[in-house]
Design goal:
mainly alpha, 10 helices
Length: 187
């Protein structure tokens, strides 16, 4: 039986207590659900969303082992497609992204986190955020310094998307969820 979103959410919460990491997982889930239709050529939205939700599930408790534990947990449940995509998102392992799912996770993960960081320093949050602003912040290495800009660039290249269009796609995927994600800005 396929892993359900509810089972994935319960597992994520059992392993992750950091509110920022939970928020990031939710953001990547939302973007990946939209990416299934945009980049997946009829892909299963649920699989793509759950992959996004769980991609960093073991990071909070076991950062030195990330993503070994979540990959092993998924493999035990027969979720090889998700396990492989999460393996490829951790670029230090050197797994080559093969499927649209693998490439989309790589292209959406870091960028979703970066877009949220951009929203948090804007009075109106995501409401008026444009790709131009995100690209400007990407050039500022001191801003959200832990975000790997090379992974963002490589992810978009591997997915074969225009950077402006992909950044706009991520913004639009997150915008309806601004309140939930804490990026709606101040009223």
């Amino acid at each position: 039986m396929a892993l359900t979103r509810e089972e994935a959410w319960q597992h994520l919460q059992a392993w992750t207590t950091n509110p920022s990491l939970l928020n990031h997982a939710r953001a990547v889930e939302l973007v990946m659900r939209r990416a299934a239709a945009q980049y997946g050529e009829g892909a299963d939205e649920e699989t793509w969303g759950v992959t996004g939700l769980l991609h960093d599930a073991d990071y909070d408790q076991w950062p030195q082992e990330h993503p070994q534990r979540i990959v092993a947990w998924l493999r035990e449940r027969g979720e090889e497609e998700m396990a492989y995509a999460i393996s490829t998102h951790y670029t230090h392992w050197g797994f080559e992204p093969r499927s649209p799912l693998d490439k989309a996770l790589l292209a959406c993960d870091e960028l979703a986190g970066f877009v949220i960081a951009c929203c948090l320093v804007r009075p109106d949050g995501i409401a008026s955020l444009k790709p131009k602003s995100v690209k400007k912040k990407l050039k500022d290495k001191a801003f959200a310094a832990k975000v790997n800009r090379d992974e963002i660039r490589q992810g978009m290249q591997r997915l074969g998307v225009d950077p402006d269009e992909h950044i706009a796609f991520v913004i639009e995927a997150l915008k309806p969820h601004g309140e939930e994600l804490g990026i709606a800005g101040k009223p």
